[in-house]
Design brief:
Structural class: alpha/beta
Radius of gyration: 14 Å
Distance between the termini: 33 Å
Length: 147
């Protein structure tokens, strides 16, 4: 999770919401990293998870990432959960819960939806305080700058 938090902190220069993600293989080697880049790239799909999935698929020249674990600082949204399921990623570990739009067990549970052909094991709340603090600080500073 420390590497995902590091990725999240790299968003400071772009005004993106600080979310970071990494994909690791069974030995714990980092295969790909990603961070939110929606503001930086003017791309609504440039979430940390999507960026990491794209990078891993490109590096492996394969869209099936069935042996990797995704570690992300914030519970994935519906879009990201869909990409995770489509890439057949079997395990997702995340930090902060996203009560309004999370798709890993909060608002939705798309990652474990039994009607889908592929599901992921979900482990939430890892380093939750540190991950949540990144978001709280970001939104506090954003509100202060617009007041």
């Amino acid at each position: 999770m420390a590497l995902a938090i590091e990725q999240a902190r790299l968003t400071q220069s772009t005004a993106d919401v600080p979310v970071g993600a990494i994909l690791v293989d069974p030995a714990g080697n980092v295969v790909a990293v990603g961070r939110n880049e929606r503001e930086a790239r003017h791309d609504p799909s440039a979430h940390a998870e999507i960026e990491a999935i794209r990078a891993a698929a490109a590096a492996r020249r394969d869209w099936q990432l069935a042996d990797l674990t995704l570690i992300v600082t914030l519970e994935p949204c519906v879009m990201c959960a869909g990409a995770i399921v489509a890439a057949r990623i079997p395990r997702v570990i995340f930090g902060a819960w996203e009560e309004k739009a999370g798709a890993g067990g909060s608002a939705f549970d798309l990652l474990r939806e039994r009607r889908l052909p592929h599901r992921a094991e979900v482990i939430g709340g890892v380093e939750e305080e540190a991950c949540a603090a990144l978001l709280v600080d970001f939104f506090r500073e954003t509100r202060a700058a617009t007041s």
